[in-house]
Amino acid sequence: MKPFFFLVGLVAISGSGGTLSRGEEAHVSVYVVDHSTEFASMGGACLPYTPTEKTGKERELLCVGKGPAGSTLLMMAFDRDLPYLDLAPVLAPQTADSEPLRFPAEGITWPYDKPGPAVDLYVAVFLNDDPALARIAEYVEWLGESLKQGDKETAMLHALAIKNRLSNILRQRKVDDYRVTFGSSLADSIRDAPASKAAVTRSGKSALLTGTTEEPKSPVAAVRRGLKSLNEQWREDARVISFGLATPGVLVFPITTPIAP
Amino acid sequence: MSRQRQDGPGAAGSGNFDPVKSSWFYPLLILVLLVAFRLFSPGSAEKPELFWLDQVLAARSQLGLADSLDPSIRFVELSMDDEIARRFATDGEYATIASILLTLESLGVKVIAVDIIYSYGREEDQALLAKTIEEITARGQTTVVLPVSLEVKSGESYLLRSLPAAGGDRFPRGLVNVAAGKNWREYRMVHQFGGETIPSLALAAFAASRPAPLAPKVTAGGRMEWKSIGENGLAVAASADDSRLFLNLQHAYRDTRFDERERIAGRAWSIGPLETLAKRSEGISLLHDTIVFFGYNAEYDLKPTTHGDQEPGMLLHGTALNDLLQGTAIRPMPLWVDLLVVLLVALLAALVFSMVKSKRWLILVALAGIVLILSAGCLAVWWFHLLPATIGPAFLWSAAVVLEVGRRWTFEQRERTQRDAMLGFYFSPAVLKQVTKNLDMIRPQENAVAVLLSDLRGFTTLCETQRVERVFELLNRLFAIETDAALRENGSLARFAGDQFLAYWGAPEPAADAADRALRAALEIHRNLRSRREAPGADDLDSWLKIGIGLHSGRGLVGHVGSRSYRDYNIVGDSVNTTARVEGQTKNYAAAILATGEFIAALSQAPANLLVDRVQVKGKARASDLHAVFEECSGELAEGCRLYTIAFDQYVAGEFKLAAEGFTNLENHSSPTIATSARLLAERCLGFVENPPADWDGIYELTSK
């Protein structure tokens, strides 16, 4: 009988393998991508975003994230309650072999070329069967359609609805740190040991991680990732978003630009 | 003889309208009263409906089916505790309020809807508060909505504004008046004053929570319009006006169950915990991106509300905003719809009442109707957010049912009275009681009965010689005695035909002792008539009170006979005919009471009697023994009976000569019955001696009735 029970146990474990329950983690990084010619060989230099990162004509913002299989990732940038620069949100179900999700979507840029208003980049992750996901996904789809059609008013309505729902999720979550402030708070969060094998791997102690605010001596010195190889490297800078059943995870990246000289 | 005019239960009678006979009258009467009440006293008519609304919403809350509150609504209470009093005293009220507004801003609040009007402070205080609000507004994260109030002074209406000395009108504003004095649930999203359209505090807070392009805008018609998302994701127009609506929620803002369910830690904050929260450096603000209503707590906000006489008005505005966001505001049904519903219920009631005859079904239908009306009202509130007239129709239905039951009872009582009046002529009170309990008893049926039939001796002569008044006087004396005796023995009366009296036992209620009762009644009649004749005060009319009584037992057919206009409960059949024949023979045998052999056999104990003859009466196939019944039989009468019996046995045996001698010896007997019967049979025997009958079987065939 023992082999039988062993088999049953294996089947049960394998059957539940695709179903997430709780304590899951998604990861997300935000970069300033510099397309200066000096980084052409890398496809562009990816600098982890900090509020002090300077703007430039060749620069754009890029958010990269990945959730475990069975989850869905949402990324959207808000200027208060409205979609920043009419950037359509991205929302994609995650599988084990899916590529990391990028925001803005392929072919669209989020320019980081001049000082602008404070923008909140919301990254949310849901279990696929989370009841909150269905409605938000509907709004995301509608918002995308409205933006394509240039129906600003309807797009604003959908964006507002998404924002309200994300805010509600934020209030409901008992998170200690929902708003990413690169610097000390990031260093604090690193002290928490990653809960899964998919957790962040970090190499060395960068000035960023040690909480020091000193400027790098050269912009090149801060460059550690190239856009071409980003898919293999982004996790090393990633923030963790924990989530679970009926408790979607939300992280807000406040994107500000340095005060114009 | 009795007669009864039979009217159907639904017949309206001839000419005059009788509401007791109409199942339509009372529902329509209540309908008229309700409509009049609704039209002429709408406020009073609405009160029970609003009470019903309370109960429905409370029930939904108790059942856990209440709509979840919009998670973005919060309340901050300013309670006048020692700390606030100290701050008011040291920093000043306006500075304290400014500090609280800044605290709320620091907590990420999106909109602060202030439900306290700061109008009367010093100019510099107003300026201080206005400056703070201006700074908060400039930072762009939080919007402060200030209240205005519609006041009346010396009969003049005016708008009481916030911070009038510091340009308070430049900030978003909302009107805080609620019709609390009239009805705490009543709310208007938009108010009109002096040609100006002013949003309520709830609508103003809603407007402030939206980006400017999406905020409600005043239209030319005094409405406020905005866009919202429709079912298919398309933008649809929404609007609010100054029409009445009723706040939906049974408040649960302080109900921790709701907060736990929503995993939202606290909807209502007092200042102390709020400031503690603001000092926390870690974690998300529980008021992040929320719309906060800021006002006095119950003790200082004296508006009557859902919760009682002392509740913060801000809860009403919060409820109104929640209803606005979720589209759950309850709208009163248009008057014409309510009136139509009431009319339909009245017509349905009348229709049902006219169709349902069974009382049990009527009660069931009545209960089902009430449940249906209340359920429909409940569903209209819960699912469609409409307040239809519910108590009115339910009252109409209930009252109509009560009146219908009363109407039917009255009708039955009247019918019963009429029936009693009719049946009272037929039956003794005891039998009548049984009959009225079970009217099936008087359906046509065949029963074993004992029949008594009497006939006045010499009635023809009486009629020829006496005046008509005296004839009827005599008949009434006779029938009174006979009726009393028959009814005393629970007999049923069939008819008074001329001088004949017919009573019977065993129908409509079967009776095992029918013959015994009939015999007792016959003996009593006989006794009473004799007493009457022999009484010292007897007049010459009493001397006519001599009757012959025939008694017989057999099968009798009983039931109503006649037409719709003339009916009679009667007994017919062979038993009655036989009794009549037997009674007809009483004078031939000079017998006061003559009973058939079947009757004697049916008695539980045979009385003193003498088998005077065995005959086959005219028209009958079977022979009957004729027994003369005596009250008592002793002495000479007993001896006479013995000798008569001997002679009769010889007669039956065909020994006519011996029998004739025996009968001849009794021809002068002191008993008229024995003497007369003996003479009759002696004469018959002598005749048989001369002409012996062929096939003699002891039965003499009578040739006349």
Q: What can you see in these coordinates?
A:
The complex is a heterodimer of chains A (261) and B (705). With 261 residues, chain A is an alpha+beta fold. Chain A has one domain. Chain A is 28% helix and 25% strand. In chain A, strands 1, 2, 3, 7, 8, 10 and 11 form a seven-stranded antiparallel sheet that branches. In chain A, strands 4, 5, 6, 9 and 12 form a five-stranded antiparallel sheet that branches. The longest helix of chain A has 21 residues, at 152-172. Chain B has 705 residues and is of the alpha/beta class. Chain B has four domains: 19-62 and 332-420; 73-327, no CATH class; 427-632, Alpha-Beta Plaits, CATH 3.30.70.1230; 634-692. Chain B is 45% helix and 19% strand. Chain B is built from 21 helices and 25 strands. In chain B, strand 18 (492-497) and strand 19 (500-505) form a beta hairpin. In chain B, helix 1 packs antiparallel against helix 10, helix 4 crosses helix 8 (271-279) and helix 19 runs parallel beside helix 21. Chain B is rod-shaped and about 150 Å long. At the A-B interface, helix 2 and helix 3 of A face strand 10 of B.
Characteristics:
heterodimer; A: 261 residues; alpha+beta; 7 helices; 12 strands; B: 705 residues; alpha/beta; Alpha-Beta Plaits; 4 domains; 7-stranded mixed beta sheet; 45% helix; rod-shaped
Secondary structure topology:
The complex is a heterodimer of chains A (261) and B (705).
Chain A: H1 2-15, E1 24-34, E2 45-48, E3 59-66, E4 71-79, E5 82-83, E6 90-93, E7 101-103, E8 110-111, E9 119-127, H2 131-149, H3 152-172, H4 184-190, H5 207-210, H6 219-222, E10 225-226, H7 230-233, E11 239-243, E12 249-255
Antiparallel strand pairs in A: 1-2, 1-3, 1-11, 2-10, 3-7, 3-8, 4-5, 4-6, 4-9, 9-12
Chain B: H1 25-40, H2 42-62, E1 73-78, H3 82-90, H4 93-106, E2 111-114, H5 123-139, E3 143-153, E4 156-160, E5 173-175, E6 186-187, E7 190-193, E8 196-199, H6 201-208, E9 217-218, E10 224-229, E11 235-240, E12 245-246, H7 256-262, E13 268-270, H8 271-279, E14 291-296, H9 313-326, E15 331-332, H10 335-355, H11 359-382, E16 386-387, H12 391-423, H13 429-437, E17 445-456, H14 459-465, H15 468-488, E18 492-497, E19 500-505, H16 514-534, E20 547-562, E21 567-572, H17 574-585, E22 593-596, H18 597-602, E23 608-616, E24 624-630, H19 635-653, H20 656-665, H21 672-690, E25 700-701
Parallel strand pairs in B: 1-13, 1-14, 2-3, 2-14, 3-5, 15-16, 20-22, 23-25
Antiparallel strand pairs in B: 3-4, 6-12, 7-8, 9-10, 10-11, 17-19, 17-20, 18-19, 20-21, 22-24, 23-24
